[in-house]
């Protein structure tokens, strides 16, 4: 009888372990960013990926987030190590309980086959509010001399100082600790470096170079290093440095040049960086407004239309990724809990659309549009991927109408017959049968009747 009980307990334990593995474990894909290429290879396939900037206060909550990310076809997250689960302890010393929690978060990402970019520090920790910045926590930073740290001002991080030496030592220790996590595909030492109090392009570039050196010494796999600026700020001294492998853009639609048109801002900022530097471009963050959502269009009734446009624009921008919403993906969940849930499945249509498309040779293409259209396309000599919207469907109300009789023209398409397929931007699925097109002076594609926007794939 005792033996039977033991066998029954063993059977239950085996079943429990098997069920957990079936529900939570997925094979972690191989990520690679080859020199000279603009898109990550996922299991060898040049892919456009979608992802998020999740924040949580517990490891278990991150685990649930990663499950939702995977369920919607998204593949990458950018994790701010100072948010949600912040460290304790003194300057330059690794807080062991804090680091152990992030070990568990990375383990959870691996179970769900989600790639991770850890962000080690953020500008607000090194900002004293002297220019009226809304967020600044320099007064709480353990590196501040007021707390026994080595820094008399935030800009000491960017200078050749004891503060920087201690911080870089801390950075190297953490990279050595976490380098064994296969989910980590890149490292970001600092987010929005231009907002550090006293920052200047030259000192920011020097810091980026020293941070990259510390990371590369600690990580024999030499995973890429990325450093970000705020909004669409571009410091060539930083982005042009050999220390930076991946360039970022953080477009937020309240910029006076765009007035909420986040989709246009994404395309413009990504392509500007591609032209200048020829390096992969990561959309690190984005949103309809960088300010807290109260009293901004982030909470507008029809804001999901603007977000849908932005996510589709990212697909055809030339960036290696898309989505990466800030407030909308959870950073305001503690005050406006409805925001994060509102966009839970927002990227699923784009993930469905890009599945199976090799982005290896796709580059931004010139497209001629009528005054009724906005949009963009990527093209190679064999493939075109495009997305086009009603030019009048703009914030703050995003009015919707039906458009018909519109066409787009790609000047350089070659002389062979192309086949065009159109896709519903609400689902990412095919609309009707494929249509043959014969180029003359250019590839003229007649668009089907649509409202809001339409996507297409042309091949030959």
What does this structure look like?
It is a single chain. The protein has 460 residues and is α/β, with parallel strands linked by helices. The chain has two domains: 27-354, Alpha-Beta Barrel (TIM Barrel); 363-459, Immunoglobulin-like (Sandwich). The protein contains ten helices and 21 strands. The strands form six sheets. It has a six-stranded antiparallel β-sheet, covered by helices on one side. Strands 7-6-5-4-11 form a five-stranded parallel β-sheet. Strands 1-2-3 form a three-stranded antiparallel β-sheet, with no helix packed on it. α7 (262-277) runs parallel beside α8 (303-315). The longest helix is centred in the first third of the chain and has 23 residues, at 2-24. It is globular, with a radius of gyration of 23 Å. The relative contact order is 0.09. The model is unreliable at 1-24 (pLDDT under 50).
Task: Give the helix/strand layout.
Blueprint: H1 2-24, E1 31-32, E2 40-42, E3 45-47, E4 49-52, H2 59-71, E5 76-80, H3 96-111, E6 115-122, H4 162-178, E7 188-191, H5 201-218, E8 226-227, H6 236-239, E9 246-249, H7 262-277, E10 281-283, H8 303-315, E11 321-323, H9 337-342, H10 348-354, E12 363-364, E13 373-379, E14 383-390, E15 402-403, E16 407-410, E17 418-424, E18 430-437, E19 443-446, E20 450-451, E21 453-459
Parallel strand pairs: 4-5, 4-11, 5-6, 6-7, 8-9, 9-10
Antiparallel strand pairs: 1-2, 2-3, 12-13, 13-14, 14-21, 15-20, 16-19, 17-18, 17-21
